[in-house]
Amino acid sequence: MQLVDRLIRWQWPDGGWNCDKRRDARSSSFQETAIPARGLWAFGRRHGYEPAIRAADRAAELMLSRRLLWRERDGRLIEPHWAAPWTASSSRSSFCDVLFALQVMAELGRIGDPRCADALALLESKRLPDGGFPLEDRNARTSATIASRCSFADWGPAGTRRSNPLVSLLALGVLQAARRSAPGA
User: Which of 178, 101, 169, 159 shows the shortest CA–CA distance to 131?
Assistant: First the structure.
C-alpha cells in the first residue's frame, strides 16, 4: 500500500506522471502515465482502494484529453524522438504505441469514450487481409543473454505485411471491447 500511496502522491497536477525532473517540464508523458494508470486501476479494483481508482481515472482523463496519441496544443500526432512512431505496433517490451494506449483504455473501462475513436480507427487501419495485425516495430532483438534492448522472448514474426499472433490477439481483444462498449451494444 505504501508504494501505491507514494505513486499517487507523485501524480502531477495534470493527472499524469513524468520522469523528467527539469523545472521547465510542464506536462506528463504518455508512457509514464499509461503504465501507472494501468497498475493503479488493477490494484484499486482488486483491493477496493478508491484513491488508486481515482488516480487512475485522472490519468485516463489526461490521456483522453489528448485523444491518446495526439498533442493537446496543436492536434498533431505525437512522434517521440527516442522510439518508433506511436502509430506502429511494437513488441511487448514497448509501452508507447497505439495498441498499448487502447489496451489501457479498455482495462480502465474507457474504450467506449468518443475520444478513443481516432486511435481505434488507426488500429483498425492496420488489419491485414488475413484478419490479423502486424508487429511493425521489433524494438528488441531476441537474445539468450542479458543485453541492452534485448528480450529472452521471441515475439513472433515482424513486418508490416505479416500477422503476428500476439499482436493480433491483443488488437482483436481491444476492438471487441470497443464494440461491446459502443452505444446500443
Answer: 169
Q: How far apart are CA 102 and CA 118, in angstroms?
A: 11
Task: Tell me how far apart the alpha carbons of residues 36 and 58 are, in angstroms, rounded to a whole number.
Answer: 11
The model's pTM is 0.83
pLDDT in tens, 83-128: 455 455 554 545 568 898 999 999 999 999 999 999 999 999 999 9
CA distance 56 to 46: 13
Separation CA 108–CA 125 (nearest Å): 23
- DSSP-based three-state secondary structure for 70: strand
Whether 108 and 36 have beta carbons less than 8 Å apart is answered as no
- 65 near 30, Cβ under 8 Å? no
